[in-house]
Design brief:
The chain is mostly helical. 60% of the residues lie in helices and 2% in strands. The mean pLDDT is 87.
Length: 343
């Protein structure tokens, strides 16, 4: 079989020159659109004013009610997950959401904070004591936010989270209505301290994972320090090196960015709703210091990639910088919790 006959046979299955050019143009335009959308969708949401958000939801002249600021802020943070450019990306199965990973990790960091706060609403903030009944709306909210974060089939992740937001909206309207005695928000020092225990644990874990970008040597003894009778399920090596895999460094970084973004707004709202308690404990300064550290963690990243220098080397290490801000915020949270637990 000669070359001419081969070309003749192949031409039967290939589109003509004009059609082929049209297909190539369509594919090229599609790729350009997908890439452009990828850049647009990869932008992190801006910081918002918790006071402006409150005014938009309840009106600038609304009577201040304890708990409404924190509830309105939780709603806005959750809605940002769903309504930012590109919407919710963690469960996308088509480009560009399919190949993006920075914003989905940012979303997960935010989601963890939303889950923790919604649990605190259900278990602590809305209940006067351990034997009191749970709020009917908050009983719905917590399990909905606990739904898997990457489901695209029905019921989709977005659908479950929107139902949770609707239930939060109902709770917000009920606590802002003085005639509704069933819905309550109790701004007490013990309630706030319980939520901060979870915040402290989350930030401690993020700080360790960020610091492990350059590798850390950890001794087995520190896992059981402080309790001579403490035991663990399996024996540990005398020393072990903990290091975040190279391809996961930016994932951890953006998860931390999302967590600190959400937590910063939550604490700004808590400062308002719990002002009397914080002032009585002389703890307002501590809350404001935590907020300042979290605000610093949201500074713009000008590098096109997350750098992983060795700390004192030629290149920056963005993970270690983020770990520094989180560690400082976590230390301040520990101090704040101690103040709240004092009589």
């Amino acid at each position: 079989m000669n070359l001419q006959s081969v070309k003749a046979r192949m031409s039967r299955y290939l589109p003509s020159g004009g059609v082929g050019r049209i297909v190539a143009i369509v594919v090229g335009v599609y790729l350009v659109i997908v890439i452009a959308l990828g850049f647009y969708w990869s932008a992190e949401p801006d910081v918002f004013s918790v006071q402006d958000n409150y005014n938009a939801r309840l009106g600038a002249d609304a009577r201040p009610v304890t708990g409404t600021m924190t509830t309105a802020t939780l709603i806005e943070v959750a809605e940002t997950l769903l309504e930012k450019p590109g919407g919710y990306l963690s469960n996308d199965v088509m480009p560009p959401g399919l190949y993006l990973d920075n914003i989905p990790n940012w979303e997960f960091g935010v989601l963890v904070q939303v889950r923790d706060l919604s649990r605190a609403f259900r278990e602590n903030f809305s209940r006067s004591q351990s034997q009191s009944s749970e709020d009917r709306d908050l009983v719905t909210v917590e399990p909905l936010f606990a739904s898997t974060n990457d489901r695209w089939m029905l019921p989709s992740t977005e659908g479950e989270y929107r139902r949770a937001v609707d239930a939060l909206e109902s709770y917000l309207q009920r606590i802002s209505n003085p005639s509704d005695q069933d819905a309550q928000f109790y701004a007490r020092a013990d309630n706030l301290a319980r939520w901060l225990v979870n915040v402290e644990s989350r930030l401690g874990s993020l700080s360790q994972r960020l610091s492990a970008s350059v590798g850390q040597v950890r001794s087995a003894g520190q896992d059981l320090a402080g309790d001579r009778n403490a035991q663990q399920s399996s024996p540990a090596l005398a020393q072990r090196v903990v290091r975040t895999p190279m391809l996961q460094i930016d994932d951890v970084f953006y998860e931390a960015r999302g967590a600190t973004w959400a937590l910063m707004h939550f604490l700004q709202a808590v400062e308002i709703d719990f002002e009397a308690v914080l002032r009585d404990k002389n703890a307002l300064v501590s809350v404001r210091q935590i907020i300042r550290e979290l605000e610093a963690s949201q500074r713009a990243v000008y590098s096109p990639v997350i750098l992983n220098g060795n700390g004192f080397g030629l290149f920056a290490n963005h993970s270690l910088v983020m770990a520094n801000y989180i560690s400082r915020a976590n230390a301040a949270i520990i101090d704040l919790r101690e103040l709240l637990n004092q009589g």
